[in-house]
Amino acid sequence: MRYIREMLLVMVLVFSCSESSDIAKYEPVSVEVEMPSNFPDMVYNMDNNPITEAGFELGKDLFYEGKLSSNNAIACAFCHEQAFAFTHHGHNLSHGVDGGVGTRNAQPIQNLAYQTSFMWDGAATHLDLQPIIPLTSEVEMNETLSNVISKLEADTDYQDKFARAFEDGEVNTENMLKALSQFMVMMVSSNSKYDKYVRNEDNVTFTALETDGLNTFNNKCATCHATDLFSDQSFRNNGLPINPLLDDKGSYDILENTEDLYKFKVPSLRNVVVTYPYMHDGRFTTLEAVLDFYDNGAIDNGNVDPLLLREDGSYGITLSDYEKESLIAFLNTLTDTEFLEDERFAEF
Amino acid sequence: MKLLKYTFALLACAIFTNCSIDNDDNEEDLSGETGELILKFDNSVGDQDFIFETSYSKSNNESFKLTNVKYIISNVRVTDTEGNTFTYPTEENVFIVSELNGNNAGEIYITLNDIDAADYTEITFGIGIDQERFALGADGQGDFLDLASEEGMMWSWASGYKFVRFDGTFSTDTVTDEPLNIHMGSVGEALDNYREVTLSFPNTVLVREENSPEVHIVADISKVFDGATTVNFADGYDQVHTDETETPIIASNVQTMFEVHHVHND
């Protein structure tokens, strides 16, 4: 049987030039993925899912496709909008199909190929499989994988797009997830003012205020918001008061280990100026509020990160007014307008 | 055009069939020959056949009734009398055994095709999804993701597989018909609950082109709770999901539940 398939393939190849059909064919045109020199090593294994132009384009179509949801209206992009580094603008808790409200603030989609886990609690450990969560979650897209595939299969446009993107050309879950990953792997944000400054590009310089902010950041924040991804990718409890309405226990819910109580993924601070509101539940609307929280809002919720323990026994990070001002100036240098306006990732 | 394709395919087919016939003049030589191997899973509780909604007692005066019995079997391989191991092709080597798909006798069949013809003495398989397969992400999963999702063998709040699903109700001395849900699986690399079992065949399994032997595997569900470790619903084993202390115990119990009851060499 396998021989037959191979033979058919040979036949198709041999006769393809003479064939005047309009059937789409596999187009393995590979695309370069950006690996910025100031980033740590990429985690995503592209050998298992080589990125092609057609695969990336299909992934983008799927990301903006309402059919991925039960009411055909909620696309991934509904909660992940480009102008806000692909977060759900103006929503502390994202809502999906039929107004269902989730319990967390949408995370930005950027540099995911460099991440070891996904979601605020790390509930996803492979980028390819992450989309299954929003797709099948009742309060997000409320669909089933097989139903999404049936909808896509019925669409001749998608039949062609899958045929161009994948060797076996099949409209199936494997290929849908691979295409979404290809799109997300390409979404690298690495051209902020800060990046150009550390890479000595375009003669970019920092103002005195920005430099002071960078120094304060390195002294007081970079243990957790580490590397040029601005996250050490660990799960930590930064002393936020518990919201009794949600009582979100963070990564505790996964292994039910009490050491994980109220721990959340240290978020990247790239494009942080546009990703408001802040924290896993979006409780702070401004960066000023975040810094005031670190300075004097943290509480002992039973499991706060020891790094935040101050000499007087309280938790937090003491910050003067000038330190706050300079930190905000520094955080502003992490905005990457090239990424936020990159047409490759834009819907239209 | 289409006609030409098929003619060519038929031709190719004929050529390949011919070759294998040519090689077949020595009756001891099994090289190139393949056959089917059928695995027949039969769930039981102790020495009773498993039946939905029937109450079975366990240790500690507790009992359970189940409406759902499913588990993932993967990485099936068989070893022959000469010590050679035949591993089923990785991409297809993952199955969901669900009591709901059983015949009237509650038997669930998995047919393995294109197994090298040989005299096999033992079988090894995994319960769940191993780290290597998980690390492939979507790659090579084909339709298994849809199947697993449809069968409720994937979490919707985390990206991972439920290796087993035992859903129903339980009763103890103090409570009656409370919900029972045992959904054990791995969590990324942090918690690896994949386990393998190796079972010897009571007599040699002869896989031949014209022979499709059947291996009758009995899975004793009572072992989930009274296996290597005895666990009590009253102590929190009524709801098992991704907890890092409870799930490895269930995984090790599930590992003890399989036995090859007999083999048919038809």
TrEMBL record, chain A:
Q: Indicate the segments forming the Cytochrome c domain, all copies.
A: 208-335
> SUPFAM superfamilies from the xrefs?
Cytochrome c
- What is its subcellular localisation? Periplasm
This entry's Gene Ontology molecular function terms read: cytochrome-c peroxidase activity; electron transfer activity; heme binding; metal ion binding
Cofactor(s) recorded for this entry are: heme
List positions binding heme c 1: C76, C79, H80
Tell me how the cofactor is bound.
Binds 2 heme groups.
- Its chief place of residence is periplasm
Tell me which PROSITE patterns the record gives.
CYTC, PROKAR_LIPOPROTEIN
Q: Which GO terms describe its cellular component?
A: periplasmic space
What Pfam family is a match for this entry?
Answer: CCP_MauG
Would the keyword Hydrolase be found if you checked this record's keyword annotation?
no
Its post-translational modification remark reads:
Binds 2 heme groups per subunit.
Q: Residues that bind heme c 2, according to the entry? A: C221, C224, H225
Q: Which UniProt keywords apply?
A: Heme, Iron, Metal-binding, Oxidoreductase, Periplasm, Peroxidase, Signal
Q: What PANTHER family does UniProt report for this protein, alphabetically?
A: CYTOCHROME C PEROXIDASE-RELATED
| Protein name listed in UniProt | Cytochrome-c peroxidase
TrEMBL record, chain B:
Tell me where the signal peptide lies. 1-21
What UniProt keywords are attached to this protein's entry? Signal
Query: Which top-rank group of organisms is this from?
Result: Bacteria
One Pfam annotation, family name?
MbnP
The record places domain Copper-binding protein MbnP-like at: 34-235
Q: Which InterPro entries match?
A: MbnP-like_dom (IPR046863)
Recorded protein name is Copper-binding protein MbnP-like domain-containing protein
Q: Which species does this protein come from?
A: Winogradskyella endarachnes
Q: Taxonomic classification, please?
A: Bacteria, Pseudomonadati, Bacteroidota, Flavobacteriia, Flavobacteriales
